[in-house]
Amino acid sequence: MHATFPDLDGASVFITGGGSGIGAALTDAFMSQGAKVAFVQRSDATDFCDEMEQKHGVRPLFVSCDITDIPALKGAIDKAAEAHGAVTVLVNNAANDKRHATEEVDEEFWDWSQAINLKAYFFACQHVIAGMKAAGGGSIVNFTSISYMMGNAGYAAYTTANSGINGMTRSLAREFGPDKIRVNAVAPGWVLTQRQKDLWVTPEALGAHIDRQCLKEELSPEDIAEPVLFLASKTSRAMTGQALVVDGGVVVTG
């Protein structure tokens, strides 16, 4: 870690997909700051929780949950609040960028893609609002992607959801700013998680992408975690409704 954010010490943090990939780096990073972390994902995270407990001396709260099951997602947030106090930092990280041809998309796939990549984000945000209001404020960080900014082909349902996340982030920031609830988005570039390596990384594809980056280095999950800490912390107290791009310099915003 390159920075310490004292206000995150003891904070109640809830992360979706917090046991693998970028999510695992987020859980580790928040725990390094002394935060009380709860997370959900579908697959078993016992081994990861064991690792975190050995490293930090405390265990994150893991709740097995399919985030497309909205009552279960709300229930997991309630369990986090019961264990750690009202959630004051929500990180909507879980997503699925399954590749698909537009001509082959049916309603079932479309609905599934929006459910995991957009719908769950909205209802997680909705469910933490009351607790954040009672706590005097909070920070929501929604993961989007540079995919829609680049106009990437091959997963139109996913990029549609990405764009929707940005619209939702801006509207919620406006609506709940008077309650001192900040809502921002983070847009990673191509982060080399194990899933990406297993499914899509080839020397040719990676080389072509790094050629488009200003910074000629591969991106790791840890490269995303620290900017999320910044957005969660009161260090960024004057930032809301923004999309923070962390991609090594592929797209240009502003």
Automatic annotation (TrEMBL):
Keywords: Oxidoreductase. InterPro entries: KR_dom (IPR057326), NAD(P)-bd_dom_sf (IPR036291), SDR_fam (IPR002347). The keyword Transmembrane does not apply. Residues 11-193 form the Ketoreductase domain. Belongs to the short-chain dehydrogenases/reductases (SDR) family. This is SDR family NAD(P)-dependent oxidoreductase. It comes from Roseibium porphyridii.
